[in-house]
Design goal:
By secondary structure, the chain is mostly helical. The protein contains 13 helices and two strands. InterPro entries: RNA_pol_sigma_r3/r4-like (IPR013324), WH-like_DNA-bd_sf (IPR036388).
């Protein structure tokens, strides 16, 4: 029997696996364990016998119910390899002189953070039931993408703190950043209606520095940056900042959002 997920959406409905995932799980239940393992080892997604990671995770979690440490250990190693691969930013990988593949320090930080946070959820699930894993059974790629977005912002902030800081909010930003940010609209109507896009966007916004996040949140609510109407609230009035400061915070935030979301499209 395929147990339903337990996590609730904001409207009270339970999360549900995709129909194709549920159908495959029902077929896989009849397989001998060794056959399941062989399916799980297939790495090519184009192979008709490829086992989606949503299904693999389900059987890893279910091994607790089956009280089988052996099943868990075997399937866990395969799952961990997939998580590590999904956590790796391919843009941070490069080939060394002798053909070996290396990853930058930034990429290592991101990968380790994603893996650590996933493992923390899995350990918690083994001890009881961690609802945070439920979405991974619904859409593994986007769940990992969310962890990657957070990890990239965290790693970037750590690098920023290790460099000389600028405390002037009104400091001129580079023309390149201003141009890139100005041509990017994170709240584009053609994208914002996509649930997956909103999920990734809000995950990245959540990790922005407070000052930048406040500006983005007000822009999302369609407050104008400045207003000549004394009775009309503006971002400048709400935050007590001059227009230049608000625009600088917006441009810095938009550039971070643009970079994070464009990388998600490449790495997903």
């Amino acid at each position: 029997m395929i147990e339903p997920l337990r996590k609730h959406r904001k409207d009270g409905r339970l999360y549900e696996r995709r129909a194709e995932t549920t159908a495959m799980l029902m077929q896989l239940e009849g397989l001998a364990f060794d056959q399941l393992v062989e399916r799980a080892k297939i790495r090519s997604k184009t192979d008709p016998l490829y086992l989606p990671t949503e299904c693999l995770l389900h059987f890893v979690r279910r091994s607790k119910r089956d009280n089988s440490d052996r099943s868990f250990e075997i399937l866990f190693r395969i799952l961990l390899a997939r998580v590590e691969n999904a956590a790796t930013l391919h843009s941070t990988m490069h080939r060394l002189e002798y053909g070996e593949i290396a990853i930058t320090a930034f990429g290592s930080k991101v990968k380790n953070d994603v893996v650590d946070r996933f493992l923390a959820r899995l350990v918690s699930d083994r001890d009881g039931y961690d609802e945070r894993l439920d979405y991974f059974e619904v859409n593994f790629s986007h769940a990992i993408a969310s962890l990657r977005s957070t990890a990239k912002l965290k790693a970037a902030e750590e690098e920023k703190r290790s460099q000389p800081l600028s405390s002037d909010d009104d400091e001129e930003i580079s023309a390149e950043v201003e141009k890139a940010a100005g041509s990017f609209d994170p709240f584009d109507k053609s994208k914002i209606d996509d649930g997956n896009y909103r999920f990734r966007l809000f995950a990245v916004i959540k990790e922005l520095p407070d000052k930048e996040r406040h500006v983005v949140a007000l822009l999302f609510k369609e407050y104008p940056i400045e207003s000549n109407d004394p009775d009309k609230p503006s971002i400048c009035k709400i935050l007590g900042c001059v227009e230049k400061t608000v625009r600088n915070r917006r441009d810095r935030a938009f550039e971070k959002l643009r970079t994070a979301l464009s990388e998600e499209e490449i790495d997903a």
